[in-house]
Write a structure and sequence with these properties.
Elements (H helix, E strand, L loop, with lengths): L1 E6 L9 H15 L3 E6 L16 E4 L6 H9 L3 E4 L2 H14 L4 E5 L4 H16 L4 H4 L9 H10 L2 H11 L2 E4 L2 H10 L7 E3 L22 E4 L5 H21 L5 E4 L5 H4 L8 E5 L4 H7 L2 E4 L9 H8 L4 E3 L15 E3 L3 H13 L1 H19 L4 H14 L1 H6 L2 H26 L4
Parallel strand pairs: 1-2, 1-4, 2-3, 4-5, 5-6, 6-7, 8-9, 8-11, 9-10, 11-12, 12-13
Helix pairs in contact: 2-3, 3-7, 3-17, 4-6, 7-17, 9-13, 12-14
């Protein structure tokens, strides 16, 4: 069997949770017996994972080019995985034309339209502020689902994303909150959605982790190209960290993340204990050496790889309600959850100073991993669902008439647009 994974970017597990997630899915397909080809139109990135080392072929493809049609027709995969909804928009119609029987799977990463709606709500609140300092003091977005739904419907991103979900045979979602939102507000049938959090269940040797006294400083981590991460750095810089530092003058904040732009490196200030460290090859090593992880996310979606790593490494985290969404299953958090700046600062200081509190929160993090994330083998369940889907694909598609209708109209429009762009690109310059 052959599987084709079409990625917006090449997997970078050392740079982002999305990279880790994609590598896990690729490895699962390999274990299922597929001959996997990973294709992307992106440039080969500096920190990308060498997929050849796990027996996966790599293929560079072009946007709006019939060369992809020839490539996928020759490959004839039984399964095609799109890594984001806009990847499906670009290549879905080409895949269906070349190999109509292939399973079409969408990995949403996180619900982009939900993240975008929350970002717009934050911007609206900041717009009402009179100064830059006030803008950087706005609390995280805590709107209920009804208000979020209204904002998601106000733009075209939710329309595009939900349409892609209907067009595919199955969509993988990393968050139970997002599944509920799609079913309740967007009327997506349950059979089109599959709850699939991070698949790795590799547990740390707890006895080998550094204890409270062996750790020092705070840390934050996240790819700087991901807007929620950059926003959290700004909130730390302008409001949270100065107040924490005032109470803990010997403490430092080390901020890690791939692709820090000049505007980020310019925030580095040794005197303030504010250190922009940039990309790190081993995130778990630096997480284990930190005493507390700070994740002041004011908007976002999905579950957070940085907080998974913090729990695995026994590092209590102070975050927001956005940060812990779909991350605990109702169990006590392995740290603190605060949305106001004052409470966030107080909890950060308390976790850094109080060893008894720190040890209690570390144990709560281990409990979340054991009882919420590791209670089921999601990889095994996904494998079974893909097998069932393959055996009954025509019946499943017949039960998704909205998907058939959307594919008919969308594929016609994107096909003609793609062919027009290709023809335009071939014209000699005037």
């Amino acid at each position: 069997m052959r599987a084709l994974v079409i990625g917006y970017v090449w997997p970078e597990p050392a740079s982002s949770a999305a990279g880790t997630r994609m590598l896990e899915l690729v490895q699962l397909l390999v274990r299922m017996g597929y001959q996997v080809t990973f294709a992307s139109a992106a440039a080969l990135s500096e920190h990308r994972f060498d997929l050849n080392t796990i027996g996966v072929a790599e293929q560079t493809i072009a946007l709006n080019c019939s060369s992809f049609d020839e490539f996928v027709h020759e490959l004839q995969p039984e399964l095609v995985l799109f890594d984001r909804f806009f990847t499906e928009e670009q290549f879905g119609w080409r895949v269906e034309q070349a190999c109509p029987k292939a399973l079409r799977i969408l990995d949403t990463e996180d619900l982009h339209s939900l993240r975008h709606a929350r970002q717009q709500l934050l911007k609206a609140a900041q717009k009402a502020c009179d100064s830059e300092k006030e803008k950087q003091s706005v609390a995280p977005v805590t709107a209920d689902n009804e208000l979020l739904y209204q904002h998601m419907c106000a733009g075209d991103m939710a329309v595009r994303e939900v349409a892609a979900i209907f067009r595919c045979d199955l969509s993988l979602l990393i968050s139970e909150v997002e599944i509920e939102l799609l079913q309740r507000y967007f009327s997506v049938p349950p059979q089109l959605l599959f709850y699939c959090p991070f698949l790795s269940q590799e547990e740390m040797d707890i006895t080998s982790l550094p204890d409270f006294s062996a750790r020092q400083h705070f840390m934050a981590i996240g790819n700087f190209r991901h807007e929620p991460n950059w926003d959290s750095v700004l909130w730390l810089k302008h409001q949270l960290w100065p107040m924490i530092r005032a109470q803990l003058p010997q403490a430092e904040l080390h901020i890690y993340g791939a692709y820090p732009p000049p505007k980020a490196t310019q925030l580095h200030n040794v005197k303030e204990g504010f250190h922009i460290k940039g990309w790190v090859a081993d995130a778990q090593a630096v997480m284990q050496s930190a005493r507390v992880c700070l994740a002041p996310l004011r908007f976002g979606a999905g579950i957070k790889g940085k907080l998974m790593d913090a729990m695995r490494c026994g590092t209590p985290s102070v975050t927001t309600s956005i940060g812990v969404e779909s991350m605990s299953g109702g169990l006590p958090w392995g740290g603190a959850v605060e949305n106001s700046a004052e409470a966030f600062i107080a909890e950060a200081v308390a976790h850094y100073q109080n060893e008894t509190l720190w040890q209690q929160k570390q144990k709560q993090g281990f409990a979340i991993l054991r009882d919420y994330f590791y209670h089921a083998d999601h990889a095994l369940v996904l494998q079974a669902r893909l097998g069932e889907l393959a055996r009954n694909i025509q019946c499943e598609r017949n039960n998704n008439f909205i998907g058939q209708m959307l594919r008919h109209h969308h594929h016609r429009s994107t096909q003609y647009m793609g062919q027009w762009i290709e023809a335009k690109n071939k014209k000699p310059s005037q």
